[in-house]
Amino acid sequence: MSPDAPRTAPRPAHPVADEVRRRLEHARTTRLAQLKALDETGSGPDDHLVSHQKDAIERVLTEIDAAFARLDDGTYGTCLGCSKPVPPERLEILPHTRHCVACRRRAA
């Protein structure tokens, strides 16, 4: 699948899922715009800062795609560390997160 193609299908008829999809799509679109802007800076392959920024953005894009998959399979919003629900406030801020704050802190 092209990184520029929107991830809109399949669409469940659930309003919360629609809102989550909207947030994930926004996060994805934002990261793709950041990648495009970095590409347009004209920096060379030896620019390590730009290279690290691109790598970080690409990792987040991978996490966003994984969040879409969790949404599709019904596991979105469940912490992969403790299997408890991730607080809605955390998902609102970081819709692609895989972990609750406590599990994320333990992993860091």
Structure description:
This protein is mainly α. The protein has a single domain (15-107), classed as Up-down Bundle (Four Helix Bundle (Hemerythrin (Met), subunit A)). It is built from four helices and no strands. Helix 1 (15-40) packs antiparallel against helix 2. The protein is globular and about 45 Å long. The termini are far apart. Residues 9-13 have low confidence and may be disordered.
Please describe the topology of this protein.
Layout: H1 15-40, H2 48-73, H3 88-93, H4 101-107
Helix pairs in contact: 1-2
| SSE pattern, N- to C-terminal | HHHH
Oligomer class: single chain
Radius of gyration, in angstroms, nearest whole number:
15 Å
| CATH classification, class level | Mainly Alpha
Structural class: mainly alpha
Q: Write down how many β-strands occur, each being a DSSP E stretch of 2 or more residues.
A: 0
CATH superfamily: DksA, coiled-coil domain
- Number of structurally distinct domains: 1
Largest sheet: none
Determine the fraction of residues in helical runs and give it as a percent range. Answer: 55-70%
CATH fold description:
Four Helix Bundle (Hemerythrin (Met), subunit A)
| Structure annotation, total helices | 4
Name the descriptors.
single chain; 108 residues; mainly alpha
Short description:
With 108 residues, the chain is an all-alpha fold. It has four helices and no strands. It has a single domain, classed as DksA, coiled-coil domain (Four Helix Bundle (Hemerythrin (Met), subunit A), Up-down Bundle), CATH 1.20.120.
